């Protein structure tokens, strides 16, 4: 399967399959599984809780196939989760300036990922990665607005073939302790391609320029690489603040 999970040309059917476990998570599954196996001989009362933990860890690092919508001007969700905030505000200084998104306010769409969501993050558009900026920080609840400025985070800027730039930020949460990047500046990516993950609960903020109409509402659930969250030159649906 291609990096952005598009089906083969001419495909006429699809079938369900168990999601893969991403390589970044396999060692954690192995550790939990080994502990469960040893507990069977040493601490029997812990066996079932550890088996449950192993299943949960495997589910956390699941990496399902995604099929990204194709079409001009589409911006897709970079994360699975719940849209918790949609508000106009300045972009982080790491994404601002002539080499970034410029100045002024953008519409920020915040997607909160619980520990039960898929945590593989994907690029909202196709193009070239221009910046990957990691910042260490605190581990506040990712649902708090101040987490955008105080938590461990990683900013990614991608520039499309038409020159339009989209910035998004991976933000660590209460139990997150590491943000992993799969890309670096200069990499060419397809829309919906995997670009990183955040371990164990977190949030992703996406910054939409003025010529992009927001297509999601607060309380909506998104699917990384599939849900259209913005449309260039589109119309903002009724009930969405822009």
What can you see in these coordinates?
- Helix 1 (23-42) packs antiparallel against helix 2.
- 37% of the residues are buried.
- The chain has three helices and 16 strands.
- The chain is 16% helix and 33% strand.
- The chain starts with 19 loop residues before the first strand and ends in a 10-residue tail after the last strand.
- An eight-stranded antiparallel beta sheet has the order 11-7-8-9-13-5-4-15. It has a three-stranded antiparallel beta sheet with strand order 3-16-14, with no helix packed on it. Strands 6-12-10 form a three-stranded antiparallel beta sheet, with no helix packed on it.
- Strand 8 (153-159) and strand 9 form a beta hairpin.
- The chain has helices spanning 23-42, 47-60, 147-150, and strands at 20-21, 62-63, 74-76, 81-90, 105-113, 120-122, 127-135, 153-159, 165-172, 179-181, 188-189, 194-198, 202-208, 212-214, 221-222, 228-232.
- The mean pLDDT is 84.
- The protein is of the alpha+beta class and 242 residues long.
């Amino acid at each position: 399967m291609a990096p952005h999970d598009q089906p083969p040309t001419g495909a006429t059917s699809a079938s369900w399959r168990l999601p893969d476990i991403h390589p970044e998570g396999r060692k954690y599954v192995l550790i939990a599984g080994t502990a469960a196996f040893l507990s069977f001989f040493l601490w029997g009362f812990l066996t079932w809780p550890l088996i449950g933990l192993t299943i949960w860890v495997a589910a956390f690092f699941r990496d399902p196939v995604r099929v990204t919508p194709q079409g001009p001007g589409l911006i897709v969700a970079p994360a699975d989760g719940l849209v918790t905030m949609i508000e106009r505000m300045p972009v982080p200084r790491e994404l601002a300036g002539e080499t970034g998104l410029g100045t002024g306010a953008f519409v920020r769409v915040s997607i909160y990922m619980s520990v039960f969501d898929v945590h593989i993050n994907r690029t909202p558009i196709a193009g070239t990665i221009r910046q990957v900026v990691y910042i260490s920080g605190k581990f506040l609840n990712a649902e708090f607005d101040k987490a955008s400025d105080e938590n461990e985070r990683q900013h990614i800027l991608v520039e499309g073939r038409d020159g339009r730039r989209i910035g998004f930020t991976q933000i660590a949460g209460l139990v997150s302790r590491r943000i992993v990047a799969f890309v670096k500046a200069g990499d060419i990516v397809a829309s919906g391609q995997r670009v990183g993950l955040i371990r164990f609960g977190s949030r992703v903020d996406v910054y939409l320029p003025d010529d992009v109409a927001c297509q999601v509402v607060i309380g909506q659930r998104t699917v990384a690489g599939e849900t259209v969250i913005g449309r260039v030159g589109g119309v903002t649906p009724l009930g969405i603040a822009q």
